Amino acid sequence: MSGPTQKVLKPGDTIGILGGGQLGRMLALAAARLGLRCHVFSPDPDSPAFDVVQNATCAEYADVEALEMFAADVDVITYEFENVPASAALVLAARKPVLPDYKILETTQDRLGEKDFVTKLGIGTAGYADVTSAQTLNAAIAKLGLPAVLKTRRFGYDGKGQAMLREGDDVEAAWQRLETRAAILEAFVPFEREVSVITARGADGQVVCYDVTDNEHRDHILKVSRAPAAVSEAIAEEARRIATRIADALGYVGVLGVEMFVVPDGNGARVLVNEIAPRVHNSGHWTLDGASVSQFEQHIRAIAGWPLAQPLRHGTVTMTNLIGHDVDDYAQWLTVPGATVHLYGKRTALPGRKMGHVTVVEPAAKP
Amino acid sequence: MSGPTQKVLKPGDTIGILGGGQLGRMLALAAARLGLRCHVFSPDPDSPAFDVVQNATCAEYADVEALEMFAADVDVITYEFENVPASAALVLAARKPVLPDYKILETTQDRLGEKDFVTKLGIGTAGYADVTSAQTLNAAIAKLGLPAVLKTRRFGYDGKGQAMLREGDDVEAAWQRLETRAAILEAFVPFEREVSVITARGADGQVVCYDVTDNEHRDHILKVSRAPAAVSEAIAEEARRIATRIADALGYVGVLGVEMFVVPDGNGARVLVNEIAPRVHNSGHWTLDGASVSQFEQHIRAIAGWPLAQPLRHGTVTMTNLIGHDVDDYAQWLTVPGATVHLYGKRTALPGRKMGHVTVVEPAAKP
C-alpha cells in the first residue's frame, strides 16, 4: 500500500509526533526553533512533550478516531520510539506522510529481522540464532556456545526482555521466564568498547554522520557518552561507513542511531552492529550543546524536506544521563562551569527512569 | 506595597510570562530545557509564544479575573516587554513574585525618569530636557541645539513616537504631530558606534555580563549584532561597569540590556547610555548559539532563584535579524555552513516585523 508522499514543509506547518517522552519533547523544541508547530500524540497524560506544544492528543494508539483527527491536523508525522504499533502506523500513513517510512519498523522491531538485514548488507553482527522453543534454544547454545544472551525478538529496551545464559544455568527455566515463543540467542561479544554513530539522511539521499561516540552503560542503561570516541581514524571511518550503508539501504529519511561493538581482532579491531534505533538516540544528546546543529534539528530538517546541516563539534563533549534520583543533583550541576543541564519535566524519579542529562563541553585543545 | 518575596523554584514549577512575542517564546523554550513549565499571558491570539507552551491565557491586560487566574496557576511571573501596564503588574504582584520587580518599570517606561536615574548614578547620557509644550520645546532647543531628537516619554520602541528636528524645521508642527504633552528632547550624539551589554543579575546579587556587542540599526530597527564588539578593552570594561552599576542600582533580578553610544572624545572615546531595556534583548540573541549559556537561560535561572552560569563564547558571532520579507530567504539561510536559523512562527511578514534571526559562529582564530 502506498500513502501520501513527502512534501516540503513551510514555516508554520505542523509536525505530528507519536510518543510524548523526552525524545518527542526535544524534537518539538527543535521544530519550534525552526518556526514549525508540533502536535504530540501520546497515551500518557503525564507526557513530558505535552508541556512544550499547544496541540496534544492524549489517546491510545488503538484509538482510530483519535489517530484520524491527529492526522487531519498535521502535515507530516514522525515518531520518537520504534515500537509504534503497525496498526496505528497504517491508519496514519494512509492519510499523511509518515517519516521515517513505518515499513522500516517491521525490520527494526524484530531483533531477528534486523540482524538478517544487517548480515545481508555484508556487515558483521554478534553470532545469532532463531529461538522458538526450549529445544531450538538448546540447538542455538550448541551452535553459539556460552555465555550468550537470550532476548525476546520484539519490544525489548534498556535490558528488558533479556537474560544472560552462562555455563551451568538452567536453560529450560530461563526459556520459561522469557514468556515468549519468538526469541533470539546472541553470542557473547568480548567487545573492547561500545560506540554509536548518529546518522541523518535527507529526503534527497544526502547522509550526514556525527562523530563516533563512546558509550558506557550501567545496568543496561546508557550512562555516559563521549564524543569523539577514542578509536582510530580507521575504526571511526568504518563505523560511519556502516551507519551510512544502513541508512541508504533502508531508504531512510530522518535520524537513526546505530549501536556498535568494537571487538579486538588480531592486532587491530573490527566493528559489529549491535542494534539499529530508527529515531533520535540518547547517545546523540551531546549534539544539543556540543555541535552547531543537533540530532533533533537534523531529524526535523530531514522530515520537513529541508537540507541537512554539516555539524561542527565545539570541543570534546561528555554527556551524562541523570537516571532516577541522579536528578536530585540538578542544583549542583547548575554550578559546574561549561555544563548545560537538561531536565525532562518528569514528575517522579523512578529507578532507571531517564530524568534529564548534562552536557559538558571542553574547548578543543590547541593543535 | 509589598508582595510575595522570591522563592527558589523546583523543576516542574511554572513560570508565568506576560507577553507572547518571540522573546516570550524563547524564554519558554529555555525554561523547558531546565524542566520548568511556562504559562503565557497575551492579548494576541496569534502569539508566537503560545505555540510552545501547554498553558496559555489569551486576555487583555485589563482583565483582572484573567490575571488572577493566571497568577493562581504560576509560581513566579516575568515579562518579555517593558510596557506592562502598571495596573496589571499591581494585581499580579499582590499574588505572586513578579521579577524583575515591576517598580523598575516605572523608571524605564519613562525616558525622562530613566535619564534622570542614569545621570544620578554619575553615568553619561545624551544631553536632554523635559518637554511639555511648544514653548518648553523651544527652550530645550535653545539649550541643546539642533539637530536633536524629540521623543514621547512613554511607549516608544523601534523608532516609533520620535522625530528628528533639524535647523529650519517647523518646531510647532513637529510638536503637534507627536500628540503628547509628555516628551523629552535629546541632543544629537555624534557616536562612532552603538553597542550594548546584556547583563544578568541573580537573586543573590551576582552579576554576569556578556561580551559587549556591536549593533547596526536600519530604519531604527536592529539589523545586525556582532560579538565581541570592535572596541578597546578599556571601552569594553567601561561598558560592562556601567551595565553592572545600573543592574545593582535597580536591585535587578533577571536579564537586562543596556544600549550605549561610543562617542569620540579627544584621542579616546567615552560611553554614554542610550536606553535600558528591562528584559532579554534582541542584541543578545547571539548568545543562543554563540555562548555556552543564553541570555534566555540566564533570565530563567535568575527569576527561578538559581545560580547564574558563566558564559563561554564559541567564537566570533554575527546575528542578523530577519525583518519583514527577509524571512522569505530562510531556505537559503538553512544551507549556510555554521548558520543557525531561528524562526518565530509569526504568520504574516509585515514590514518592520521581526520574523526570525540567524546566527553565524566563526570559530575563534588561533592566537
From TrEMBL, chains A, B:
Keywords: ATP-binding, Ligase, Nucleotide-binding, Purine biosynthesis. The keyword ATP-binding applies. Transmembrane segments: none annotated. It is an enzyme of class 6 (ligase). Residues 115-304 form the ATP-grasp domain. It catalyses: 5-amino-1-(5-phospho-beta-D-ribosyl)imidazole + hydrogencarbonate + ATP = 5-carboxyamino-1-(5-phospho-D-ribosyl)imidazole + ADP + phosphate + 2 H(+). ATP binds at residues 111, 151, 156-162, 186-189, 194, 217, 274-275. Catalyzes the ATP-dependent conversion of 5-aminoimidazole ribonucleotide (AIR) and HCO(3)(-) to N5-carboxyaminoimidazole ribonucleotide (N5-CAIR). Catalyzes the ATP-dependent conversion of 5-aminoimidazole ribonucleotide (AIR) and HCO(3)- to N5-carboxyaminoimidazole ribonucleotide (N5-CAIR). Homodimer. This is N5-carboxyaminoimidazole ribonucleotide synthase. It comes from Rhodopseudomonas telluris.
